[in-house]
Design a protein that fits this description.
Elements: E1 7-13, H1 20-34, E2 38-44, H2 51-61, E3 65-70, H3 77-87, E4 92-95, H4 107-115, E5 120-128, H5 132-148, E6 157-164, H6 165-173, H7 181-188, E7 192-199, H8 211-224, H9 228-257, H10 265-297, E8 305-309
Parallel strand pairs: 1-2, 1-4, 2-3, 5-7
Antiparallel strand pairs: 3-8, 4-6, 5-6
Helix pairs in contact: 9-10
Length: 316
C-alpha cells in the first residue's frame, strides 16, 4: 500500500457500454494496491446505449461505485469531470477517460508524486497512437494555445491527472458554465508536475467526438484563457490604417506624375472585399466572446443531474 488516504476516481462516459466493466475491473486491481479506501465515480452524459443499465447494476453490486446521471447530454467530458469532482469525498481526485487511452496503472505514479507534496500531477502525452493528421493537430493546438494564453499551460497535458482535495475545492467553487477543466486546473496554481506517457488508441468502441467537436473545444480553450484574438483585431486594424494612409500618399503622387493614367475599378472592388473580410472576421471574434459572456451572465446551472447512485458522504 502506498497510502491509507482515500482516492476518488472520476470517469466521464458517453456510450461506453463495452468499456465500463473492463475499466472498473482494471481500476480495482490498481486501486487495491494503492489504498484500502477508494471510490469510483462514473458521470454518464445521457448515454443512448446500454451504459446507464450497466452502471446501475455495477452500483448495486459495489457500494464504492457512484454514478451521476445527467438529465441530457451536456457536451464534452469537462462537465463529467466537474460533476464527479463536486461529489467526490477523497483526499485526492483522479480524472481519467473511460476508453483506456489513459492507462489506469499510472495512477500509482500519480499518487507517489502526490505523497511527495505535489498537489496536481498530470499526464504528458509524449506520443499518441493515432493517425498522422490527428497527431499533428494535437501538437499544433497545444503549442498555439500555450503561446496565446495568459497562463503557463503545460504542453501535451490532457485531462488525465490527480488533484489534491484542496485543488478540487477551488475548482468546485469556480462558476464557469463553459468549462475547460485543464485550463482551470492550470489557473488554480498550486504545486504541479507532469509524468510522461504514450497514449494508446481506444480499447474498444467508437468515439463520439468528431473534428468539429475538437474545433469547438479549441475555440473554447483559447477564448477562455486568452485575449490574443482581440489584441490581433487591434493590431490588424492598425496595420490596415497604416497601409491605407501609405496608399493614399502613393496614389496622390502617381496622380501628379501620371495624370492621364486609367483608374482601376477592379482595384477598388478588391480593396472593398479585403476590408469587408477583415471586418467580418473581427465581428466573428467579438461575437464569440459576447456569446460566451451571454451564457455566463444567464447564470444557469453548469449541468442538470437527474440521479446520483451511492453518493459519497463528504468528510469535509
Amino acid at each position: 500500500m502506498l497510502t491509507d488516504k482515500k482516492i476518488s476516481v472520476v470517469l466521464p462516459c458517453h456510450n461506453e457500454e463495452v468499456n465500463i466493466l473492463p475499466m472498473y475491473e482494471r481500476l480495482l486491481l490498481v486501486l487495491q494496491k494503492i489504498t484500502p479506501q477508494f471510490e469510483i465515480i462514473f458521470a454518464d452524459n445521457n448515454s443512448t446505449d446500454n451504459s446507464p443499465s450497466i452502471l446501475r447494476q455495477l452500483a448495486q453490486k459495489d457500494q464504492r461505485v457512484a454514478v451521476v446521471y445527467f438529465a441530457r447530454n451536456f457536451g464534452d467530458a469537462d462537465h463529467g469531470y466537474s460533476a464527479g469532482t463536486e461529489i467526490a469525498s477523497g483526499d485526492a481526485v483522479v480524472w481519467i477517460d473511460c476508453d483506456f487511452q489513459d492507462p489506469p496503472e499510472m495512477i500509482e505514479q500519480f499518487v507517489a508524486k502526490w505523497l511527495q507534496g505535489y498537489q496536481v500531477v498530470y499526464g504528458i502525452r509524449i506520443k499518441r497512437q493515432a493517425n498522422f493528421l490527428m497527431r499533428l493537430g494535437y501538437k499544433f493546438f497545444y503549442r498555439v494555445f500555450n503561446k496565446m494564453s495568459y497562463l503557463d499551460i503545460p504542453k501535451d497535458a490532457g485531462d488525465f491527472c490527480l488533484i489534491d482535495h484542496q485543488v478540487a475545492e477551488v475548482l468546485n467553487s469556480m462558476p464557469e458554465r463553459d468549462r475547460f477543466v485543464r485550463g482551470l486546473r492550470a489557473w488554480a496554481g498550486f504545486k504541479q508536475t507532469g509524468i510522461e506517457y504514450v497514449r494508446p488508441e481506444r480499447l474498444a468502441g467508437q468515439t463520439s467526438v468528431n473534428i468539429f467537436d475538437y474545433i469547438k473545444v479549441s475555440k473554447r480553450a483559447i477564448m477562455s484563457f486568452s485575449y490574443a484574438p482581440l489584441e490581433l483585431i487591434s493590431q490588424l486594424g492598425l496595420l490596415v490604417t497604416v497601409l491605407a494612409l501609405v496608399a493614399i500618399v502613393v496614389y496622390f503622387v502617381l496622380a501628379l506624375i501620371y495624370p492621364d493614367s486609367p483608374k482601376g475599378i477592379p482595384t477598388v472592388i478588391i480593396l472593398i472585399l479585403f476590408l469587408g473580410g477583415i471586418q467580418l472576421l473581427a465581428l466573428s471574434v467579438i461575437g464569440d466572446y459576447l456569446g460566451r459572456i451571454f451564457e455566463e451572465v444567464k447564470q444557469r446551472p453548469k449541468y442538470v443531474i437527474k440521479e446520483i447512485l451511492n453518493q459519497p458522504a463528504k468528510k469535509r
